[in-house]
Amino acid sequence: MFRNLKLRRPLAVLDLETTGVDVKTDRIVEIGILAVRPGRPAEQHTRRVNPGVPIPPGATAVHGITDDDVAGAPAFGAVADDLLTRLDGCDLCGFNVKRFDLPLLYNEFRRAGRSFPLDGRAVIDPQEIFHAYEPRDLTAAVRFYLGREHADARGAAADVRATAAVLDAMLGRYADLKRDVDGLHAQFRDPDAVDSAGFFTRVAGEIRFAKGKHRGQPLDFVARNSPDYLQWMLGQDFFEDAKAVARDALRRRGARAGV
After folding, report:
1. What is the pLDDT of residue 258?
2. Burial group, residue 19, by CB count within 10 angstroms (0-12, 13-18, 19+)
3. How many domains is the chain built from?
4. Lower CB count within 10 Å: N or C terminus of the chain?
5. Distances from the Cα of 85 to the Cα of 94, 107, 180, 224, 239, angstroms
6. What residues does 32 pair with on adjacent strands?
7. What is the Cα–Cα distance from 135 to 236, expressed in whole angstroms?
8. Measured between alpha carbons, how far is 234 from 246 in angstroms, rounded to an integer?
9. Which is it for the CA torsion 124, 130, 135, 138, positive or negative?
10. d(CA 252, CA 259)
């Protein structure tokens, strides 16, 4: 499958078609997974999902999937365990996967009462590489790197194959890109980011908020003066690594207070 990317672990290339672009509230209507394992043929899996809510016309205009198309499809909760099995032990890849697909998928698993851990996984987003070198979208990336038009650009199955092909072509074009998944993960990860979503950052060795109402404030300062905010975070849909940072800050606060 890949000519330029070196794999030591399985890599799952993901793409979601959804009811909209709000990662907290919108739902999946189709998921595509291209599983690439070292020394084995790639395996593709595409699944339609009934979102349980009407698909807005604007979303249908993007991916072509209607309410009738998913009327007989299972709910996400019915396929959650199968998806977790397919993704088990896999590093992850997808076009805009860090800002869209992973947060939305995380929230779907959370609503289904399942955990979707990212610890120990490398995450590669060809969009980051593309925007660093040729800022455009997947269709333009296919045209630029593969020299063809992106056929069936509205479907998850075509998108995951195109994403994998674009990533491989990028590695063939740019000699300074790392040649393995862990290397690419590190190359495009903010060195100061504390968690996978970049909610916390490290400034001069001190953890600070990078987002939210306390943006720019030291974590321990917020823990001392607004611990309720960290408690609130623990009940929301933040990734587990961000929640772990909040828990550690609350523990430190409790230790200082002798609780």
Report:
1. 67
2. buried
3. 2
4. C
5. 18, 17, 24, 41, 19
6. 15, 46
7. 33
8. 7
9. negative
10. 10
* Distance of alpha carbon 18 from alpha carbon 201, whole angstroms: 30
Contact (Cβ atoms closer than 8 angstroms) between residue 29 and residue 54: no
Main-chain phi, psi angles of 44, to 5 degrees = -110, 135
Q: Which residues contact 200 (CB under 8 A, 6 or more apart)?
A: 193, 194, 207, 208, 209, 210, 219, 242, 245
Residue 163 confidence (pLDDT): 95
**Residue 243 domain boundaries:** 200-257
pLDDT at res. 61: 87
DSSP calls for 197-224: T-SEEEETTEEEESSSTTTTSBHHHHHH
User: Residue 67 corresponds to which amino acid?
Assistant: D
Burial class from Cβ neighbours inside 10 Å (0-12, 13-18, 19+) for residue 151 reads exposed
Q: Which residues 6+ apart lie within 8 Å of 103 measured at CB?
A: 23, 24, 197, 237, 239
Tell me how far CA of residue 190 lies from CA of 80, 123, 232, 233, in angstroms.
Answer: 30, 13, 26, 22
CATH assignment at residue 121: 3.30.420.10
The reply to whether 79 falls in a domain is yes
In a domain, 251, yes or no: yes
| Residue 183: partners with Cβ closer than 8 Å, 6 or more residues away | none
List the chain residues with pLDDT less than 50.
none
In 3D space, the residue among 49, 53, 46, 35 whose CA is nearest the CA of residue 79 turns out to be 49
- What's this model's pTM, rounded to 2 decimal places? 0.70
Q: Same domain for 26 and 142?
A: yes
pLDDT of amino acid 106: 95
Of 167, 127, 173, 169, give the one whose Cα is nearest residue 34.
167
pLDDT of 57 reads 86
Identify the pLDDT of residue 234. 95
